[in-house]
Amino acid sequence: MIVGIDFGTTNSLIANSEIFINERGSRITPSIVFFRNNNEVLVGDLAKSQMYIRPDKVILNVKRDLGKGKEYIINNEKFKAEEIASFIFKKLKNIVNEEISSAVITVPAYFDDNQRNGVLEAASIAGLDVVKLLNEPVAAAIGYGINIENKKILVLDFGGGTFDITLMEIKDDVFNVLKTGGSSELGGIDFDNILVNWIVNTVKEKDGIDLNVDPVALQQLYIHAENAKIDLSVVENTDIIIPYIATLNNRPYHLNLNINRDIFLSISKGLIEKIEKLILEVANEEIDEIIFVGGSSRLFFLKELVKKIFPDKKIISDLNPEEIVVKGAGLYAQVLEGKINNILLRDILPHSLGVLDDEGNFIEILKSGIHYPSSETEIFTNTKDNQDTIIIKVLQKKNDEMINLGDFEFKFSKKWKKNEARIAVNFSLNINGLLEITAEDLNTGQSLKGKITNAMVNRKSINKDFINNYKII
Ligand code: ADP
Ligand code: MG
Q1: Is 366 a residue whose pLDDT tops 70?
Q2: Average per-residue pLDDT in the chain?
Q3: How far is the CA of 323 from the centre of ligand 2 (A)?
Q4: 232-280 pLDDT per residue, tens
Q5: Could you tell me the distance, in angstroms and rounded to a whole number, from the CA of residue 185 to the centre of ligand 1?
Q6: Separation of CA 111 from chain center
Q7: Which atom of ligand 1 is nearest to the CA of 232?
Q8: Is 49 a residue whose pLDDT tops 90?
Q9: In principle, which of 98, 124, 333, 388 could form an S-S bond with 415, CB 3.0–4.6 Å?
Q10: How far is the CA of 42 from the centre of ligand 2 (A)?
Q11: pLDDT tens, residue by residue, 157-195
Q12: Which residue minimizes the CA distance to atom 26 of ligand 1?
């Protein structure tokens, strides 16, 4: 069976024709890893309950750190972000009782080459063979069973820690990502933080108690704040009741506060303005439909806000927004299994790829916005006498940032005088939008073996045995 996986910053899911249920009977597994000891790790809800008590042994939001060379130290041991993420993939894999031949994994449309490779590495450590990296907004559109007719859609994916906005065009049966935006620093957790602050300040003013100084009390506040936020998406007001949260004059203190939507709106004003601004940066009047994705898209004011910005556009939000991405990934997995009709996908490169010249300038080779698979060949020569190797520094230009993808070193069969070597370097994007580089010596007609150094993710050096040292629960 081919599975579809939504590996989220906050929550992860796995599906084929249906979403698989974990050992707790839930379709959603929090993307949280807790090291119980040196060879036992808990993933999901079990890890979530430890996150405030043992923050030194818990890893949250690992998706953000993939492909960036990030390492964590837990119990005096070093772990790469990709290794931590592999625990989550393995856990998802364990939920499924059937043999998994391969997987479709969703990734944010704006993920660069390193981040995409980071996802592949993590999945590969968990023993998953990835057949397709599917862009999340495209998966959401497939999940909603969007009518394949020519139109422009705006996908608002509001999760736990990120707000991803994508403008997409469906044209002649093809999904084209036109523009991406949003913020990787804005999500549901920010509303939880604001609510916790509100509770702390209210209790301080009312009863003179500072709950901020007690980590166990704070843990309780975070859990109850998130619940209250979720309540408010259904009801006008709700009670936050936490017995025995502190002591006052040697007596137990029970927290009991009521919060309503007006208070929530007024304390979240800054965040809501930010949301509006981010939407306007990506969207324009040409859109035909807006689709809601992600748990935080249930926030009670969001639909009103979007209606205010675009009064006459159709909003599609009738399915479970937390499940829509994995549903699309599961559908696409079934397409690859030949069980349902083909859906054509044509993705675009989110950020230009190129090389660094001797003066340190970025020379663009594959332009952002081109469709993949695709390839481009460039001729390089040597700049010094007696040179038998050439090093090509490959970069990806992500907004104002230059992402280093590694140094590709090619060795010639002989030493050339300055400007005599001629090598044709082929930059190609595979079906997952990943860069593959090959080279040919034009003087001899031989293909050259490349060596990659300085790369954030080097798929050739993945240690797949690592995960066997751990029991994953
Ligand atoms: P991600 O894609 O980042 O993994 P999800 O799409 O699963 O995340 O969204 C998780 C977020 O959704 C959490 O911050 C959670 O509090 C929030 N959330 C879930 N249900 C609701 C609701 N009814 N109202 C508001 N926020 C919600
Ligand atoms: Mg998500």
Answers
A1: yes
A2: 92
A3: 9
A4: 999 999 999 999 999 999 999 999 999 999 999 999 999 999 999 999 9
A5: 14
A6: 7
A7: 24
A8: no
A9: 388
A10: 21
A11: 999 999 999 999 988 767 888 888 899 889 999 999 999
A12: 296
Nearest CA to ligand 1 atom 24: 230
Spatial neighbors of 197 by CB under 8 A, at least 6 apart, are: 267
**8 in ligand 1 pocket by Cβ < 6 Å?**
yes
Q: Which residue has the higher pLDDT, 371 or 396?
A: 396
Torsion of CA 85, 91, 97, 99, to 10 degrees: 30
Domains of the chain: 2-186+273-347 (3.30.420.40), 349-457 (2.60.34.10)
In this structure, the residue with its CA closest to atom 11 of ligand 1 is 160
One-letter amino acid of 314: K
**Residue 117 C-beta-side C-alpha neighbours within 13 Å:** 22
- For residues 258 and 43, what is the distance between their CA atoms, to the nearest angstrom? 33
* Integer Cα distance of 245 and 72 in angstroms: 32
State mean pLDDT over 32-52.
91
Q: Give the whole-angstrom CA distance, residue 169 versus residue 172.
A: 10
Question: Residue 458's pLDDT band (boundaries 50, 70, 90)?
Answer: low
pLDDT tens for 60-97 read 999 999 999 999 999 899 999 999 999 999 999 999 99
Q: Are 21 and 76 in contact (CB under 8 A)?
A: no
Position 83, amino acid: E
Cα 345 from Cα 396, distance rounded (Å): 23
Name the residue of 6, 7, 10 whose CB sits within 8 Å of the most ligand 1 atoms, as the mutation to test its pocket: 10
